[in-house]
What we know:
Blueprint: H1 6-13, H2 28-52, H3 64-88, H4 109-123, H5 129-160, H6 162-170, H7 191-196, H8 200-224, H9 229-240
Amino acid sequence: MNQPDSNVEAAFAQGPVKATRKAHIPDGKRREKRLERLRLQGFYPIYAAACFLALTAPLAEPHPAWIALRFIGLGLMVLGLLMRIWSFGYLLKREELATAGPYGRTRNPLYVGTWLIGCGLMLNAAAPYNLALLAAYNVLFYFIYRAQIGIEEEMLRDIFKAAFDEYCRNVPRFFPRVSAWKVGDVSTFSLGRALKNKTLQPIAGLLLLLALQMTSWGLLWPMLRGASFEAAWQAFMAGGWIGLK
């Protein structure tokens, strides 16, 4: 690994590297708008499919392995949500280069959190549809977020120059390293900063998706199979929301 020059070492030693200019990259806004359209066109349908194909509650799966897979999905969603909250608590967009907390392990902890939530949502659909949805989601995620991360790295490199290159040399782009990269004085977690970064939005989004999946397996599919709303609701409240009825 190449050794950083003294100016880069000094920049990190003085604390979080601050932004002193705005990014200017060719066609940046146009490329970001195109990716935003692709996200809407690609992820919304697959999220809808994961909710609609929640045919049965987790405990109503016929095999223990399928039950375990459903609960792994729930765990991944919670883990991804916590990852995003943790990341938002260190992030000062357009003001400084985040290298502390989760950013000392992966350069894109917010997207890691998004990926975990998405994988969990797919696994929480009914088996075996969940495995097909999981595969489709990962293909979609790879191509769209690979392009998104590429644009953001161009912007960060334009703003922070050699400091960002040094950060990239020490911290992986996506899958986290075990030990955090620490250099100089870095920011600490701030709940106020997390709230300022709208961390409540992913919480609300996850609760909505879970509610839609529960509505699907607890009310929609029983009614599609011939049950009345009253009977489906009574079964749902008696434990059908998780599969005990």
